[in-house]
Amino acid sequence: MCDYMKITGITKEFIMQEDRDFDSAHASTLLELKNGDIISAWFGGSWEKDSNVAIWASIRKNGAWTQPKMLADTRGIALWNPVLFELKNGRIILFYKEGATIPEWRTLYITSDDMGESWSKPRELVEGDKSGGRGPVKNKPIRLKNGNIVAPASLEGETWDAFVDISEDDGKTWQQSELVPLRRVSYNPQMIDRPYNKYYCYGKGVIQPTLWEDDNGHLHMLLRSTSSAIFKSDSTDGGRTWCTAYDTGLPNNNSGLDLVKLPNGYIVLAYNAVGNLPNYYKGPRTPLTLAYSDDNGASWKELCVIEDGRGAFAYPSIICNDKNEIMLTYSWNRERIVYCKLTYTL
Hints:
With 346 residues, the chain is an all-beta fold.
């Protein structure tokens, strides 16, 4: 095995055409089905938070995407951030958020036993939850070597905090971890030369973790932050407790990111490789870049640039298979969702 990765092929295509039933599409998720088809879901409507924003999905069959189908209706309340996952018995579960505002979120889910052709009625993930949403918040859960499912989660109130939800019974019940410790420092936009400490997080905090388990059974998460950098936290007890989050040195524009662990152990990260604008708490959502780590996240090398034009190319969702293929979806100017497939050699 070489100490480098090389992309040998890349294709990109829109999942939906310009003539569609929604003006805006965002926050996609994808899953490879047992028959090799790809299913992707996203939220679509007039704009984020609007009462007509529903959960939509499409399946890539025989090289073409099916007409987008509404999987979850709004009932007059905005829906957000779908996440796909496959259970041990082959059942597909689709988690999503419901709420007029983010602090009001509750997590619902629907299931499919026929590879996404039909879906159950929605159920609440954690009955009576009033916390602002349990379970996966943007990125896919992972299954640990011991069989547990760990779902990356976060809360967005006056402060932003991350945690995970753990299921020991294949998604029937969930236990919330402790919040990820964070040294939050008040953000002053006039503070040009902010004191650097890798444990300082400026602004509201961290959200939307993405996870992997290493060969020693330890868990790691990378986090979106308000501090112009991707933060990281680590766990040695299956995700129940986490170390204080720290700056990785990778830039972050206060937008979503995602990663996947390849069969050989490499980690591939999809993110906007840019920090916040000066004196502002957000940055541009371009370029969209892939990086990889061959040392369990200690260092990163650029793999390729997916998009680098003017616009917003963001909120990636990334998966892989055992055929040296990486697949991702992402938002294209919040109008449509792009599906990208890459092949690689090691």
